[in-house]
Amino acid sequence: MLLRSVLIFLAATPAVAKCPVKDDLFAGGIEVRWDDDTVEVYRDIGGGLVQTESVYGDGYVSRLKLAKGVYVAELVDLNDGVLDLDSVVMYRYPMAAEDMPLPEANGQWRVHTTYTDTYESYKETQTHIWGAEQTVTYGDCTYAVIPGRLEYRSDHYNHDEGIHYVSELGIGLLTSYKDDEYPEPDIYTVTGIRALR
After folding, report:
1. What share of the chain is helix, strand, coil (3-state, %, to 5)?
2. 158 and 179 Cβ atoms separated by less than 8 Å
């Protein structure tokens, strides 16, 4: 009788959603929600690239390709699901995406890249500076993360990005952004994360 009661209780209890893991990038993807109503979906597309589709609160949609889930390789806007080819931004690295290093706690990586958009192309230097591992909670899920600062420097445009690299997910999450024009950083906060299955 006791066993039957336990089974009935378990059947009536809602399933607890598991926190995403890296394997979910290869399945339905990982959805990340932000405090500004942005919703992003991350999926592994092979070749060392993770694709992110972002839908912002105002309806604007963009698609980003991240080498090793961290380093920006390509950015493009979508209009009604169609790529806006005039908006394409590309970063070319001196090695294939799969050969790029993963972030390491207290590590640093400097690389010379080429920035290209519809109007111009120029050389830049990226410096990726990683701090000590820490624990961060996103919604109901807690992960070990490596906080980083990505510095983009050129004669044309300079900006910095704050990143949390979540090795258990294989992705970097943007935490801040600032540039020459707006030196006070914009701060971004994750409010929820889940696997899409």
Report:
1. 10, 55, 35
2. yes
**CA dihedral sign, ordered 50, 15, 36, 134:** negative
pLDDT at 183: 83
The pLDDT confidence band at residue 180, using thresholds 50, 70 and 90, is: confident
Cα 185 from Cα 171, distance rounded (Å): 21
**pLDDT surpassing 80 at residue 14:** no
How far, in Å, are 32, 100, 122, 183 from residue 47 at the CA level?
23, 11, 25, 35
Report the candidate in 94, 128, 85 with the shortest Cα–Cα distance to residue 110. Answer: 128
Model confidence over 49-102: pLDDT tens digits?
A: 999 999 998 888 999 999 999 999 999 999 888 889 899 999 999 999 999 999
d(CA 128, CA 72): 12
**Do the beta carbons of residue 40 and residue 31 sit within 8 Å?**
yes
Q: Which of 65, 45, 41, 43 is nearest to 53 (CA)?
A: 41
Q: Would you state the structure tokens that stand for residue 121, as one six-digit string? A: 């192309």
The answer to whether the beta carbons of residues 30 and 196 sit under 8 Å apart is yes
pLDDT at 4 over 60: no
CA–CA dist 10, 15 (Å, integer): 9
